[in-house]
Design goal:
The chain is of the alpha+beta class and about 200 residues long. About 25% of the residues lie in helices and about 15% in strands. Strands 2-8-1-3-4 form a 5-stranded mixed β-sheet. Strands 5-6-7 form a 3-stranded antiparallel β-sheet, with no helix packed on it. It is globular, with a radius of gyration of 20 Å.
Amino acid sequence: MTSGYASKWILLALVSSGLMMLGCGDDDSGGSGQHVKVFVTTSQYDGNFGGAGNANAACNNLADAAGLSVSRWTAWLSDDNFAAIDKIFRATVPYRLVDEAQTKIADDIVDLTNGSLDAPINVDETGATVTTELQVWTATDADGTNAGVGSCVNWTSDSNTERAQVGLANSTTATWSDSGVQPECDTLHRLYCFADAVSK
């Protein structure tokens, strides 16, 4: 009986230890553990992508050229049909930049869309920090929903009479996605790109 109880306690200790080790995978130390990669584009675009799907293609082309390991990416853009939060990968693990430190911007999808970030999305696909021309096309409120103030006619217009909401790549407040309306869709802005899969 004693040896049986001892075995159970040893098994419990091993299981607990294993769970503790699993839990450590998602800590903040140097970007360890599973996460979803995020970057802001080096390239800038007017509001006419020929639709949001071509914005995704822009993210993928830049990621491929930079040699990023994830093969599919989605732009953080809303339109009249879909909200950005319904397009990107809804992660239960942290979102991290593609810099060397794998800087964490949010713990998970809930943290990403609560109106504040742990760090700005100001690192491009090459791992460099973006410091100028910080406006980013979004048409999206900080909670990931369609702002309802324009999306350059579902991202098919570069007219100076159409408009869309923009964010700021150097912001950690709600203005990362919603810093106001760009009243002209012929201006050039960046995109936020989110990986469609979890990486380590």
